[in-house]
Amino acid sequence: MGIFLDILLCFGVVLAQATFSTLLSAKGIYPDLCFILACVMGFYSGEHKGLMIGLTVGLFQDIFTPGGIGINMILKGLAGGLAGVTTHTFSTVTSLAIMLVTFALSLGCGLASLVVAYPVIDAPILFHALSSGLFPQGLYNSFLTLGIFWFIRYIGPSLSMVHLGRGTR
Amino acid sequence: MLRSEPNFPISTSLRRVLGVIFILFLALLLFLPRQSQEWLSHVGGPFARILEAPLHVVASIQNSIRHAWGHYIALQNVWEENQQLQQEIQRLQGEQNLFREQTIITSQFQQLLAYQETTPMTTLPARIIGRNVSNWYRAMIINKGNQDGIRPEMGVITHAGVVGRVVRVNPTTAVVLLLSDPNVAITGMVQKSRDEGLVQGTPQGPIHMKYLPPLSPVQPGDPVVTSGLTDDFPRGLQIGRIRQVTKADTDLFQLGEIDPIVDFAKLEAVLVITSFQPVLPSSSPKPPASPSP
């Protein structure tokens, strides 16, 4: 039942990304809801859950993305896993840790996606992508992840139905 | 319990006599001539005036209460009716909005269908059901897929012009990469000067027309159409208009920047080109038929 709900959640987030993410657009920057889901799961439930949710939501995202199948799956899986590892092994789950880790992971995933999407990339394009895409999106993802994380933590007990159990500290 | 006695006791017989006299007086009043009745009226007038004032007051209060009650009841009904009408208005506004939306969508589809009927291409209409699942591609998802005959590399257009190209096909959906994405490149032609170039999106946003001949007299505002050299688009479909042309001293070719004819952000329905008959440019007119000997 838990796995089924997790899959349903991933599918819902991909649908939201395809349909409602434009409503969250700020000056042309969209939040990557799939990435945020993977990170939140990693922060909240640990690296294993983060990895699995990241892989699943990435696979679903790949189905509706022009790039090759597997890119988002690997990146989101890594993001979820690393989010869990960094905040449960090397650090405690604080606001600053969540923001820094999410920003770094968003930047890493963005750069990897950029290289895959535009194999021939020169310095001006890279600078433009960093300044107008990767950094703003990293910040946007970080703030949104932080907000969602604390929101879920606040109402966590009432969300036990969706198996958002706390991971190891 | 002691019963208080009156100060001037009246005997029972006297009471009877007085009662009889009173009845006789009343009977006599009925049979008195009209003048006597008027005299009695004059006598009773002041008493009537005294009684009239409170009577009017009581009557007006009663009237006011009746009116107030009537208004209250009426207002209650009006309030309820108002609530019902408000709900009705909201429902009708919702329906009107739905119909307006349906009308717009129908109008768009009618335009597409009208174009579909007039164009020699075989096309399939599709609705856009999603956009930009990833931040790194400018793409959209349409509601037609493998089962409907959609294949990768098929061109996507509207009645206005070129939209993009199908890059991924699922059973019932397909992913279309927009013309503004750097991964899409189609061959274009400046309609006036007939110069050809490669139309391609850029990561920064604008659409470029590359490899324009250095001596091409391209001007801002010139329309750009498909040249038909690739397999996915026939010749002559509108792409956009030249916004500006640049050429650095070290460049071999001119570079045009294009304003696309299609507003990608407002697209709701498209046509997928499933097949078309390539029309090659006729270089020379046909010679007139010679008369048979």
Q: Any key phrases for this structure?
A:
heterodimer, A: 169 residues, mainly alpha, Arp2/3 complex 21 kDa subunit ARPC3, B: 293 residues, alpha+beta, Thrombin, subunit H, 2 domains, six-stranded antiparallel beta barrel, 2 helices, 36% helix
Summarize the structure.
The complex is a heterodimer of chains A (169) and B (293). Chain A has helices at residues 2-19, 33-45, 47-63, 71-90, 95-117, 123-154.
Structure overview:
The complex is a heterodimer of chains A (169) and B (293). Chain A has a single domain, classed as Arp2/3 complex 21 kDa subunit ARPC3 (Orthogonal Bundle). Helices cover 73% and strands 0% of the residues of chain A. Chain A contains six helices and no strands. In chain A, helix 1 crosses helix 3, helix 2 crosses helix 6 and helix 5 (95-117) packs antiparallel against helix 6 (123-154). Chain A is globular, with a radius of gyration of 15 Å. The relative contact order of chain A is 0.15. The model of chain A has no long low-confidence stretch (mean pLDDT 82). With 293 residues, chain B is an alpha+beta fold. Chain B folds into two domains: 15-118; 122-275, Beta Barrel (Thrombin, subunit H), CATH 2.40.10.340. Chain B has two helices and twelve strands, in the order ααββββββββββββ. Chain B has a six-stranded antiparallel beta barrel with strand order 1-2-5-4-3-12. In chain B, a hairpin with a 7-residue loop joins strand 1 and strand 2 (139-142). The chains are: A mainly alpha (169), B alpha+beta (293). Chain A binds chain B through residues 14-15, 17-19, 21-22, 29-30, 32, 61, 63-67, 72, 110, 113-114, 116-118, 121, 125, 128-129, 132-133, 137, and chain B through 129-137, 139, 141, 167-168, 170, 173, 175, 177, 181-183, 202-204.
Number of individual domains of chain A: 1
Structural class of chain B: alpha+beta
Number of strands of chain A: 0
Most extensive chain interface and residues per partner: A-B, 30 and 23 residues
CATH class value of the largest domain in chain B: Mainly Beta
The gyration radius over C-alpha positions of chain A equals 15 Å
Cα distance spanning the termini of chain B: 157 Å
Mean pLDDT of chain B: 80
| CATH architectural category of chain A | Orthogonal Bundle
Give the total of domains of chain B.
2
Low-confidence runs of chain B: 1-5, 283-293
DSSP summary: helix tally of chain A: 6
Q: What is the molecular shape of chain B? A: rod-shaped
CATH class of chain A: Mainly Alpha
The percentage helix of chain B is 25-40%
SSE string of chain A: HHHHHH
- Fraction of residues in β-strands of chain A: under 5%
CATH topology of chain A: Arp2/3 complex 21 kDa subunit ARPC3
**Largest sheet features of chain A:** none
CATH architecture descriptor text of the largest domain in chain B: Beta Barrel
Number of strands of chain B: 12
